[in-house]
Design brief:
It contains twelve helices and 18 strands. The protein is α/β, with parallel strands linked by helices. A hairpin with a 2-residue loop joins strand 17 and strand 18.
């Protein structure tokens, strides 16, 4: 094997390794965008057709310059009646806290986007959806591939409704390799029958491999080009797979690079054999970051929701910044909805600042975070906790929305009765990544109460009932079938299962 000028092996296809290309680009004054484009081009080598060996074709650089959307760079011209507004509300586990000691309390932070915003009213597309579809051998079943095609047809017909705004569609197929089939075409200009024929004619169809990394690279390059062409346009990658990446480390590296573009990445885990937990390890905590378990009955609804969400995006990015005042110490942070995720014990940098990019915002959806806070001893009647600043692209630069956090303090050491909704959210997120059976049981019970109150799927409520009974009787979830366990895991992870259903802590 030949080596590049720095002594590192090349990719075997006549290209130097990505690190050296980045170094050369920097020496030439090449932009970060061009370096990231080079990464997608080189790392994607070998994933375009099914007859090539599916292996990593290049070394991913540790120090590649990051391309990120500067939120102040996007100037969205919106009229006053269409301007986006993000409502911020903070509710506390307790209506007040004792003055003495250093009480630990939780706050439920809720963001509610309103308005049309972004691309609506400009006459062009309002968003770009990039579908990465698993067409490997395991999809060659009567309750899989035909249902995928039917769901895709229905989604396209929904987007062709005369009242629907334009949405761009791209399609990447992956199996033993990955290939772009459709690249940025308005949904209303696509004939669903032609899309189906293109998928059926793909040389990748029913290959015996799941090149999820290649799919991410192909979808990432489409997202990169789309963002370069129109920095305002919201981007979302939706991957469907009925298995798991067969090279997780390569997929994780590809995911890291894809997330250097302002694009949401979500997953539809299809069928009993879909590895929900591996996909959550790959996606959770990033932009988008949801993993939804679907089956033959729900795949149609899942694609209909993809179409609906694509029409309701009001902001391409949403930066949430929580800064605490002196004396208040931040602990853990969880994303409660959508896509529950634990940011970890060090979520607040130095205990004083938490920042996250939630990705796109959709009109009509509430986004919520749970914050753990330790308050100082005080003699005052209230404690200033800090402030929350939410920033989204807006007219003339970033729009900012601010909310101050305060909590009353009282004499005596007793805490008042907790707010039931906030306590329920705390119990739900406390079940993430824990081996504590009592916490997991409390989390399942709180989820069951929430879903019943919201009249969610009766099937999910019954599954939660079964899981609660299993934990009470055995302290594990071994009583659940593989499909039931996958559906439960798609909503909140736990680590109490035995070795028959391992759930590793990330």
């Amino acid at each position: 094997m030949s080596v590049c000028r720095s002594g590192r092996p090349d990719c075997g296809s006549g290209h130097e390794c990505v690190r050296c290309r980045a170094e050369q680009a920097a020496a030439r004054g090449t932009t970060p965008e061009e370096m990231l484009r080079a990464y997608f081009d080189v790392s994607g080598q070998g994933t375009e057709t099914a007859d090539r060996e599916v292996v990593p074709r290049a070394e991913e650089p540790d120090d590649l310059v990051v391309i990120e959307l500067d939120i102040d760079d996007v100037d969205v011209d919106t009229s006053a009646d269409e301007a986006v507004n993000v409502g911020i509300d903070a509710r506390y586990e307790y209506a007040g806290a004792p003055r003495d000691g250093e009480p630990v309390v939780h706050a439920l932070l809720e963001l509610t986007p309103r308005g049309r915003g972004l691309m609506h009213g400009e006459g062009g597309p309002v968003s770009h959806v990039i579908l990465a579809l698993d067409v490997s051998a395991s999809m060659n079943e009567p309750d899989k591939f035909p249902l995928l095609l039917e769901a895709l047809r229905r989604m396209l017909y929904d987007l062709q409704d005369p009242d629907a705004p334009d949405v761009l569609i791209s399609v990447v197929a992956f199996a033993k390799g990955a290939k772009r089939l459709i690249d940025g075409v308005a949904a209303r200009n696509l004939d669903p029958r032609d899309v189906e024929a293109t998928l059926r004619a793909s040389p990748l169809l029913f290959g015996r491999y799941t090149d999820f990394a290649g799919a991410l690279l192909r979808a990432g390059r489409i997202a990169f080009d789309s963002h370069a062409a129109n920095r305002r346009l919201p981007l979302r990658i939706v991957a469907l797979t009925d298995g798991r990446p067969q090279d997780f480390e390569r997929a994780a590296r590809a995911m890291t690079m894809v997330q250097r573009i302002p694009v949401d990445v979500d997953c539809l885990a299809f069928g009993d054999d879909a590895d929900v937990l591996t996909m959550k390890r790959l996606l959770c905590g990033r932009r988008g970051g949801t993993v939804k378990h679907i089956d033959a009955e729900s795949i149609g609804d899942a694609f209909a929701r993809v179409a609906d969400v694509a029409q309701r995006v009001v902001a391409k990015r949403c930066i949430v910044d929580v800064e605490l005042v002196g004396g208040v110490v931040g602990g853990e942070v969880w994303r409660h909805r959508p896509g529950r995720h634990a940011f970890g014990r060090s979520a607040f940098a130095l205990g004083v600042r938490f920042q996250a990019d939630l990705g796109t915002l959709q009109r009509g959806r509430t986004y919520s975070l749970v914050l753990q806070l330790r308050l100082p001893t005080t003699e005052a009647d209230e404690t200033e906790i800090g402030r929350v600043v939410v920033r989204i692209p807006g007219e003339g630069g970033a729009q900012s929305f601010e909310h101050r956090l305060w909590l009353p303090r009282h004499a005596g050491g007793a805490l008042p009765e907790p707010d039931p909704e906030v306590r329920g959210a705390v119990e739900i997120v406390s079940g993430i990544d824990t081996a504590d059976v009592e916490k997991v049981l409390a989390s399942l019970i709180a989820r069951r109460e929430l879903h019943a109150a919201e009249r969610r799927s009766l099937r999910l409520v019954r599954l939660l009932d079964k899981a609660i009974e299993a934990v009470r009787r055995t302290g594990s979830l071994d009583a659940l079938s593989k499909a039931e366990f996958a559906a439960l895991s798609a909503h909140t992870r736990t680590v109490i299962a035995t070795s028959t259903k391992p759930l590793p802590v990330e």
